[in-house]
Structures are given as structure tokens and as C-alpha cells.
Amino acid sequence: MTAAFTLSDAVPNPFIPSSKIACEVPTPSHMTLTVFNLFGQEVIRLVDGIQAPGRYTVVWNRRYRHNLSVVSGSYLYRLTSNAGFNETRQMTLVKRVCSSKYEA
Fold first, then answer.
1. Residue-wise pLDDT tens digits, 22-53
2. Residue 88: which CATH number?
3. pTM for this entry
4. How many domains does the chain have?
5. Distance of alpha carbon 18 from its chain centroid, rounded?
6. What is the DSSP secondary structure assignment for residue 66, as one 8-state letter?
């Protein structure tokens, strides 16, 4: 069992299709894991509820609430708990750039 709340770096970062965010919860707590754009606007809430002690991994597939894909760029993700834990980290989405083998 973990002794403290932790929030890990997103893996991979930068990412293309999806990124995994890991966290550890030492005691039963109401946890919220939210992704924000750099303007501070909520993109999606990935977790919002009571979590038992343990290690969790959440996958973000670059979608927001309406299941539409977000644009390339940097995003912040924040884990908070009712026990006073609050940590924010950054991840970067890079979309594939298709290039033609034929150039004008």
C-alpha cells in the first residue's frame, strides 16, 4: 500500500494517440483528475469520485467532453483530493503530420 498521494508524469509525453496518467492513493478519498487547456478551461474530467487506496492508471485519448479530438498543444492535468492533495503537471499532444511523397 502506498504511503502518500502521488501524481506521475504522463507517458508517453509528448503523445500522439493517447497518454497514460498514473497516480497513487493512500487512503479512501474523493479524487478528481481533470485535463485543462493553457487558458485554464476544463477539457475533460477523467476521474471524479471516491477511490480506494491503490495505484491507478487513467488513459486520455485526446478527446474532450463531446468526444471530439482536441488540437495539438500543451495541456495541464490536475489531481486533487478531499484530503488536501493538489498537484498539476503538463503534457503535450502532437498530431501526426502527413506528408506527400510528391512535392510541387
1. 999 999 999 999 999 999 999 999 999 999 99
2. 2.60.40.4070
3. 0.84
4. 1
5. 9
6. T
